[in-house]
Amino acid sequence: MKRAVCPGSFDPITYGHMDIIERAAQQFDHVVVAVLENRTKSSLFTVAERISMISVVVAKFPNVSVDSWSGLLVDYCKSNSIQAIVKGLRAVTDFDYELQMAQVNLQGSGVETMFMATAPAHSFLSSSLVKELAHYNGDVSTMVPPSINEALKLRIAGK
Ligand code: PNS
Fold first, then answer.
1. What is the CA(37)–ligand 1 centre distance, in A?
2. Which single residue of 20, 24, 141, 154 could bond 88 by disulfide (Cβ 3.0 to 4.6 Å)?
């Protein structure tokens, strides 16, 4: 059984993430969406909130599950018999950082990273951009599923 992980901070999950998850799920028997800590970012939603938000929007994909991990991604892969990390590449600006992580992960553990080109419609999309827009009451309805849009509105309103 070929198992892959789509890791990220998913704060919050966007249509860009979902596109990668859906396409990864067509290539692997099972895909785990893993919420991990990115120590360079502060978060709007707790890990538990992100897991439940993601679970709702990926429920339509039968071979996708959701989990979290607070250590190294490669240790998660080893403990869960995952052979591949799948990441989306939006533009060349993603490349340096992603290549570095893929090489460190490969060297440390032998776990492969596979990059998928983000669909052009999502190439500008990021969770940070969504949060910035939502913070100023901008319309993010084309960037995130309705349930995520709702959660953003509530959180930004302080609820
Ligand atoms: O969505 P993000 O914030 O770009 O995701 C980055 C993430 C969380 C996948 C990355 O920071 C990560 O893998 N963190 C876990 C710790 C780890 O394994 N770091 C890589 C060692 S170089």
1. 7
2. 20
- The stretches of the chain forming alpha helices (DSSP H) are 15-27, 47-58, 73-79, 92-109, 127-135, 146-156
What is the model's pTM?
A: 0.96
Residue 86 has pLDDT above 80, yes or no: yes
What is the sign of the dihedral through the CA atoms of 43, 45, 48 and 54? negative
The amino acid at 73: L
- Strands 112-117 and 64-69, by their bridges, are unpaired
Ligand 1 pocket residue status of 106, Cβ below 6 Å: no
So where are the chain's domains? 3-123
**Fold of the CATH domain 3-123:** Rossmann fold (3.40.50)
C-beta neighbour count of 148 within 10 angstroms: 27
- Cα–Cα distance for residue pair 153/99, rounded to 1 Å: 34
18 touches 57 (CB < 8 A):
yes
Residue 1 alpha carbon to ligand 1 centre in Å = 25
- Which pLDDT belongs to residue 93? 86
In the chain, DSSP finds a helix count (H) and a strand count (E) of 6, 5
Q: Kindly report the protein residue whose alpha carbon is nearest to atom 16 of ligand 1.
A: 72
Residue 127, ligand 1, Cβ within 6 A: no
